[in-house]
Amino acid sequence: MNISIIRGNFVKRILHLIIFLLSYNFCIIYKFDRQIMKIIIGSASKELGKSIVNKLNIQSSIVQVSRFADGEMNVHVKDDVYNQEVYIIQSISSPANDNLMELLLTIDTVKRLGAKRITTIIPYYGYSRQDRTIKNNNMQSALGAKLAANLIQTAGTSSVAVIDLHSNQIEGFFDVPITNLSCFEVFVESTHTENLAIVAPDVGAIGRARAFAKTLEKEHKIKLSDEIIIIDKYREKAGTSQVMNIIGEVTSKNCVIVDDIVDSGGTLCNAASALKSYGARSVISCVTHSVLSGNAVEKIYSSSLDKLVITDTILHKLEKTGKIKVVSIANVLTRFIQGDKDAN
Known about the structure:
This protein has helices at about 5-35, 45-55, 95-110, 145-155, 205-220, 265-275, 295-300, 330-344; strands at about 35-40, 60, 65, 75, 85-90, 115-120, 135, 140, 160-165, 180, 195-200, 230-235, 245, 255-260, 280-290, 305-310, 325. By secondary structure, the chain is an alpha/beta fold. The strands form four sheets. A seven-stranded mixed sheet has the order 13-12-11-14-15-16-17, sandwiched between helices. Strand 14 (about 255-260), helix 6 and strand 15 (about 280-290) form a beta-alpha-beta unit. Helix 2 (about 45-55) packs across helix 8 (about 330-344). It starts with a helix and ends with a helix. Mean pLDDT is about 90; it is low at about 25-30.
């Protein structure tokens, strides 16, 4: 037999052996990594947390909450988390005070149990609208967003991840690493691809609306107008109804209002009516965090708004059909956890 052929076969076998050993070792390491990572799900994010856990195929634990007779909260973490990397998932949604306290107690408990590293994932960062102090009639408001950040850090978290913060300045309230994740990709399937007009509900939302437009261009492979429609809201005098002026052309356009929070729904519904009165063909709204307080749902169903698309950062029990559609951010957070784990 030709010596060169023998050498060639020998080299091939050696290469196959090396590839097998590397693959085997990778599997062992991957399984080991999964065993030292735990996800703990808070009561405000049960459904979202379970969806993430199923995608990652790892162990998880749901926080058990108990109360004393006076209403004082206590939390219980069942799993052993010593020397493990722990991800805690909990929104600070209604009831915000209870859910924030549960989050703080959970972080503290996990820290005391000897977790190697704690990443706190807060899909909806409550108190985010208190991102600046306001003085009015000799009264000053609290800086709630900063205080919440201080409490979360003091409890013992190593890092924080949030979805679509109300304002970027909140990132500066944290001394630990914070990741502000965008979830615009989950809205793509719900938007038109023709005659689109992206709408900012106020001047402060222009940056968010422009970023949303870029996401649509990338995902739909289309080119949108550089113009962002702006809704200019003002009151001629105290006690009068709010007036809405539309800055930009919306005639025969499919309008998409982009915002981070919908609360009572009043401003959103009025904006939809204003856009329709200016000749818009359709009006939908893509909003990340659905507070939906009071009779907001009823208000939206009876409004000129054609559709409201929200995410599951806040849990609601809504009809599966109708004007309100819920899309999940589970894939966004799953990718974050996978990337964060690889980086550490």
